[in-house]
Amino acid sequence: MSNVWLPCGLYHQKYSEDHGWWQTPVIKGKMILLLVLVFIVFPFTLTGYWFGVANMIGYTAMGALGVQLLIGYAGLVTLGHAAFIAVGAYTSALMILHFPWPRFLIDWGLAYPISIIISGILAGIWSVLFGLPSAKVKGFYLILTTMAAQFITVDFLITQYISQIGGRGQAFSLPPGTIKIGPWIIDGELKTYLLMAVLLTLSVTVVANLLRSKVGRAWIAIRDNDIAAETIGINIIWYKLLNFFVAGFIAGLAGAFWISNTAALSPEHFPWFWSLWLVGVILIGGIGSIHGVIFGSIFMVIVMELIQYGVMLLSDVYPDLMIKFLYIKESVFGLVICVFLIFEPRGLSYRWWQIKNYFNLWPFSY
Amino acid sequence: MAVSNGFQLQVDNISMAFGGVQALSNISFGVKKGEIFSIIGPNGAGKTVLLNCINGLYHPQKGEIYFEGQPISKLKPHKRAEMGISRTFQKIELFKGTTVLDNIRLGRHIHLKSGLISGSIYAGKTAREEIEHRDFIEREIIDLLEIEHIRDKVVGMLPYGLQKRVELARALALNPKIILLDEPLAGLNLEEVEDMARFILDINEEERWKTTCVLVEHDMGVVMDISHRVISLNFGEKIAEGTPAEIQSNPSVIKAYLGEVEDLYATRR
Hints:
Helix content of chain A: over 70%
Oligomer: heterodimer
Number of strands of chain B: 10
Structural class of chain B: alpha/beta
Largest interface: A-B, 39 and 45 residues
Strand order of the largest sheet of chain A: 1-4
Number of domains of chain B: 2
Strand content of chain B: 15-25%
Shape of chain B: globular
CATH class of the largest domain in chain B: Alpha Beta
Distance between the termini of chain A: 19 Å
Largest sheet of chain A: 2 strands, antiparallel
Radius of gyration of chain B: 20 Å
Number of helices of chain A: 16
Helix content of chain B: 40-55%
Shape of chain A: globular
CATH class of chain A: Mainly Alpha
């Protein structure tokens, strides 16, 4: 009795086996192989361009993971997640540039790791602040309050005030050597890739663990039926705010990672379109599934890279295409969402689930 | 007058109106510990509103509700659940996207201790706690309600009768002191009705549970068979209270259900 297909003759003997993530030797082997691939094989085999793609996938996935928590697991529709990523990025950058660190912390390379955690917490608190209306409103009305987060945070506070700190105009740039973890200076693509892989693995682990414990179940209960959730003793306001906090925390981590990837920071990195994009990622990947976040991010980033490649090829014939790339990107985004909503409304993760089931029963599928 | 007469749950003179509709007017009654207490009445009599008031989904405009001597009418539903009030719904209100087991686990919510940080690490105490509660659910609830075969099924896919049973399982997982059952038999076939009635008696009588049951039901056969005491509502007013036998012979109850005797003649003619 388990929620995965077990091969013939394999039975769980203890409840702990049934509660585990990786329930059969095959799954365990597969996941260890994946970790080996991500942490050992890729760092040695990828080249510059592909590290960039992988970092973009990781950054998208971390943002989308927060959106998935809000929309997919608690039913809190959000269209302002880029704001919390921005809060994380700016907190981390400002702490590195302007915080009076004691000398030894900089020497030991702890300034950036500490700023990652602080930016996670601050982005979480900022997210809770804009989550407060969820105590009273839901659905379409909540979309408006989260959009307010986007416009107040990025378009007003950050553009008008925070990005003026230091008096160097709109963009912050982080001098080389300031982003440092322990003895390693995060400068090359390989190091940012490893940082991304670690942060993403940690966030996915935390979310997956939460979802099989008390807190995550309470979120799912609120998503499915908030009245019943209240009558079985779930304090729905508290758990909604907790959800906003965790989603904001992960967004903050993503933002703090982003500055190591670009070494520069400007409000244009966090437009409202990026919030919409993250929602699109989980729509394509599948709502209510962690697999969906990863699949959606990989799909969207790869598709965009392919389009860019195609446009570059065609630009000899039609030079206009290069100029209008932004429009092409946005219309393809819209088209992909439409295609998915019509033909695969449950997203890539559902397709994955179907393929897995097919092979679980193959070749005797009856 | 709160605790003086040994009632576990006491409803004291509550009134509730929705705009111009008086859903409840000056209702008072008490439920003793360990009894099966039924609320009957024609459609629209205010039975579900009364349960919602006890449970906290509605707040009565007048009057007070006492649970084990404490006034509770200002408390939110989740606080009342922590005090030991649990309920099922007339229209099934399960968490449709999750499995039967997860629904019952959610019923254990108030007994679990893990928080955000311990839950995200999920080692040691949290993992042990999950296993302990899983053991409780398997031993006490799934076994009692005979739903072993569906524990990993997604709730939304189950037939109606089983969904009703899962809802009872979830309410029971709270380990409640009092359980409010809103039409647990509605829409069930004869066999399922018999099963459900047996479960209600089990919950009420077994040494392990000894839970007080407040039952809202239209199936008079079952109500009269299993309840200790019954009240009857009509248009938001209490018209009778007593043992099943007293209720059955009460003229105003008969009138509420069947109409005036002269009306009967009028329709026949």
